[in-house]
Structure formats: C-alpha cells, structure tokens
Amino acid sequence: MRKKILSGVGITLIGMVALLWAASAFMLRFALSPAHEGKDLQGSWEYMFNNYPELEAWKDSLTQAHALKDTFIYSPDNARLHAYYVAAPSPTSKTAVIVHGYTDNAIRMMMIGYLYNQSLGYNILLPDLRYSGLSDGDAFQMGWLDRKDVMQWMNVANEIYGGSTQMVVHGISMGGATTMMVSGEPQPDYVKCFVDDCGYTSVWDQFSKELKEEFGLPAFPLLYIASWLCDWTKNWNFTEASALEQVKKCKRPMLFIHGEKDDYVPTRMVYELHEAKPEPKE
Asked: Can you give the pTM of this predicted structure?
C-alpha cells in the first residue's frame, strides 16, 4: 500500500511539473511569437493612412521623388534586418532613429517619422525590429537583444547622412524600452539625446503585470520558468532585460513621455524610470 501511495504521489508530482513546463512554454510562445499586424505591410500602410491622413500625401510625394528608401543589413548572428530612411527636406546633420513597439513595424511609426522629417527637418531612419516588417526573426526580443541591432542601425544612419550627425533615438512602448536599453551602452559622440515614449521598466515587470491582469495569475511559478526557458532557448531572460538598470548608466539627455490613459504599459513606470535616470532629463 505504501509503495502504491508513493508511486501515486510521484506520478502526481511529475504530472504537475510537466503541466507547469507546458504552461510556461505556451506563455513564452504567446508573448514572444504571436501572429501580429507588424507582418502585414499593406495593412500597416492602410492603417496609418486611416489614422493619420497626412501620411498618404507625404508617402506619395516621397515615392514620386524616390526619397523613401529602404535598406538591409546583416547582424553579427547573420539575421537580415530591414529599415526605411528618408533624408531631410534640406541638408542637415540632425538625424532621428525611430524605434517601433510590440506587434508594430517601421511603417506604424511613420507618424513620428513625419513629425521629425516634415515638422523638424530631420533625416530619419526607422528599423523593423526582429520578427517585424521585413526583418528576420521568429520571436520578439522585447528590446533587450534589439538594443544591439538598433546600435548597428544608428551607425548605419550616421554613415548614410554624412558621418558626423547629431542624433536622437526615439522609441515608443517596446521601442521606448529598447531606446532606454540602448542608452545604457557606451555611446558614440554623434548621439546627442534619447526620447522614451511609454517604455516599461523591465520585461519582468511588464510580463508580471500582463500575467496578473489578463489571467489573474501571480508571477510564481510560471514567469520564473518562462524566463528560464527564454534564457535557455533565446539567450536572454526577463530580469536582465531591464530598461531601469540601463537608464541608471545613461549620461546623455533623455525626455520621458507617458500618457495617463496608457492601458498597456502602466504610467507609474515612467516615474520610477525618471527618478533612476541621472541628469540631464525631463
């Protein structure tokens, strides 16, 4: 009888472990590899024209002048990465690298591109992050490994626009987190400032919030296992992917933007980020 009980307990434990493993693996795929609008280029243009009517005439004029260009590069791990770029209406060294958010793509950041290019007279470059637009990848990197790709794009933009640019890096949502993660790395002299628009403090914090709000579940144990699986399969984990820790090392000016009605990234995060960032900041 005792052996049967122990055997039953063992089978139950194995079943529970298998269930937790499967649930965590599902969570990882659900979070990092969803079907998303950022893979639909035509649909993305249509969405932007419907929401920002001024973009359609702008795109048409750029197309006619052959001014809307795209380029591909290869990362050190041989991923093929894509970006759009547009020179300023008049020659200038001022350049903006503009980073999109979760489930978006470079096209869905063109309203910010329009602002910099048409209103402020900047050169612009808008990359597709991995698993978005025309870039390679089978999963989002949530900004952490993206920071390396964006820094490669920053160098590309600097070379395209003359080699001595004055550069701002501006990101929204996941792109904002990416921008902050970039900011904590050593910077070339041409980088002058950063704009974080609605970025999260860390992937762990953001996923914890989503797990609680969407499924009513605590971080333990699913998030811990999913983070470990991410480290094992994708070479990064949720805790190291911290915009908060990166902004602590940032010496360049940073502007923080966050709306109180943001229902994806909690607005409270911007205050923690702002406090962690050394001066200059606003």
From this structure: 0.94
